[in-house]
Amino acid sequence: MLIEACEVVVTMDDAGTEIAGGSLLIENGAIAWVGTGAPPDADGAERIDGRGSVAIPGMVNTHHHLYQTVTRARALDQGLFGWLTELYPVWADVNEDWERAASRVGLAELALSGCSTTTDHHYVFPRGIEGLLEAEIDAARELGLRFHPCRGSMDLGQSAGGLPPDSVVQDTDAILAQTEETVRRYHDPEPGAMLRIAVAPCSPFSVTDRLMRESAELARRLGVRLHTHIAETTDEETYCIETFGRRPIELLEDQGWLGPEVWLAHCVHLDDKDVRRIAETGSGVAWCPSSNMRIGSGIAPARALLDAGATVGLGVDGSASNDVGDMLAEARQALLSARGVGGPGAMTIREALRVATRGGAACLGRDDIGSLEPGKRGDVALVGLDGLGFAGAEADPVAAILLCAPRAVRHLIVEGRQVVREGGLVNADEDDIAAEARRVGRRLVAEG
Q1: Which long-range contacts link 438-446 to residues 24+ away (Cβ below 8 Å)?
Q2: Distances from the Cα of 105 to the Cαs of 101, 124, 352, 357, 372, in angstroms?
Q3: pLDDT attached to residue 71
Q4: CATH of range 59-363; options 1.10.3720.10, 3.30.450.40, 3.20.20.140, 3.40.710.10
Q5: CB 352 within 8 A of CB 335
Q6: How do residues 216-262 score in pLDDT, each as one tens digit?
Q7: What 3-state class would DSSP assign to 436?
C-alpha cells in the first residue's frame, strides 16, 4: 500500500520529524519506507491519495469501558460515587447481546476518529452470564482494530463494605482462575499482535487487598500488563485513608502495583511524591480529561507527570462518563485542559498528539506502534483538511487537526489494511451498528 503526497506526514519519531509532501509505503503489515518522491519497489501497490490530508500514527486509546456505550447521558449531575451508585444496578443486567452492540458502537467511533489500537477495561461479570469479553473481541476483529482488552474484576460488594452491588462481584478464586484462562486463550505476545490481554482489578473500593496482590503476581507470572483505576476523586482518597491508612498511590505501591508493566487510569489527585513514584517506577498513566471533567473529578497533573518523565497516554474512558468515543476530540480536550490550569505554555499541539500516539503505545507496552517509521506496524490515520471546519487553517495543518473541529478521519489503516475509507467504515455498516445499539438502549430505558 502506497499513501502518496500527504500535506504533512507527522512521523512522531524521536526527533519529531514532519515531512511536507510525504508518502509512506506499507508492506506485509509494516511500514517499509517514509519519504518524499517515488519510493523503491512500489510497482503494483494499492495507492491512496494523501493530498489534502495530514498523516499521523494511528492513535492509541488507553482506557475505555465499551459496555457503557448504551448507557450514555445518564447520572447527569453526579460525582463518581453517585454516578456509580446510579448506574451499577443498570449494568448488572449486561449480557452478550448488550456487550456486542455496545462494543461495535464504541469501536466504530474510535476507528472513525483515527484510533487504530484500543484497550477496554471490562469488570462487570453478573452471575450466570457468559461471553462478554468474547463479544468485544469478536467486534474488534470484525472492525479491524488492534485490541488490548483487560480482564477486569470486582470481589468487594456492598455487603462487605464495597460500592458495587453483590450481584456483580465474583469470588476471588474464580476471578483469578478465569483471568488466567483468558490470558492463556487469547493473549498474543508476538510483535505486531492484534490481540493482547491485561489483568485489571477495578478499584480500591470494589476489590479486596488479596485480589490486588494476587492479580499482580498472576500478571507478572504470565508476562502480561496490569491496569486499574486510581486517584480519580477526593472521595476515593478519603476512602483509602480511612480504610487502609494510605493515600491511593501509597496503597498501590504497598500492594506491588507500581512498575513498568503497570498503567493506571485517571491519576487526578496526586501529590508531588505520587508523581515522582509513578515516574521512578516506570508506571504509565491513562489520562482521561473529558471523563474527569464531565464527572467533576478534576484535572490530572499531566504536565507534572510528563516533566517527571512518566509515561502518559490518553483514554476516552467509558461512554457513560465521557459520552463520546473520539480520540481526536480527546487529544484536543487534553491540550485545552492542560492549558486551562497551566497557561498557554503548559502543552503544545505536538505534545498532545505525542501523548495520543507514542504515549499510548508506551502505556500498553508496544514499541511496534505509535510512530510512522520503517519497521513499525502499518497503522496510519489520514485526517482530511477539506471542508468548512478547516478553511483558513493553512498556516499550520498539523495544529489544525487539533485546534479545529474534530471530524471523522478520511482514512484509517491498521496493519496495512483499510478500516476507514473516505470517512466510512470498511468492514461494517455504521447505520446498522447504530440501529442495533439503539434497540438495546431503548430496551434498557423501558426496563427502568
Answers
A1: 439/101, 440/70, 440/97, 440/98, 440/101, 440/102, 441/70, 441/71, 441/72, 444/70, 444/71, 444/90, 444/93, 444/98
A2: 7, 19, 25, 22, 27
A3: 97
A4: 3.20.20.140
A5: yes
A6: 999 999 999 999 999 999 999 999 999 999 999 999 999 999 999 99
A7: helix
Buried b (16+ CB within 10 A) or exposed e, 264-303: bbbbbbbeeebbbbbbebebbbbbbbbbbbbbebbbbbbb
Please name which of 282, 365, 293, 285 lies closest in space to residue 332, comparing C-alpha atoms: 293
What CATH number matches the domain at 2-58+371-425, 3.40.50.300, 2.130.10.10, 2.30.40.10, 3.40.50.720?
A: 2.30.40.10
Q: Which residues contact 405 (CB under 8 A, 6 or more apart)?
A: 389
| Predicted pLDDT at 42 | 83
pLDDT tier, 115 (very low <50, low <70, confident <90, very high otherwise): very high
The CA distance from 35 to 417, in Å, is 20
Neighbours of 148 (CB within 10 A): 29
Cα 391 to Cα 20, 54, 194, 288, 337, distances in angstroms: 19, 15, 37, 29, 25
pTM of the entire predicted model: 0.98
The full set of domain ranges for the chain reads: 2-58+371-425, 59-363
Cβ atoms of residues 379 and 56 within 8 Å? no
DSSP letter for 164, please: S
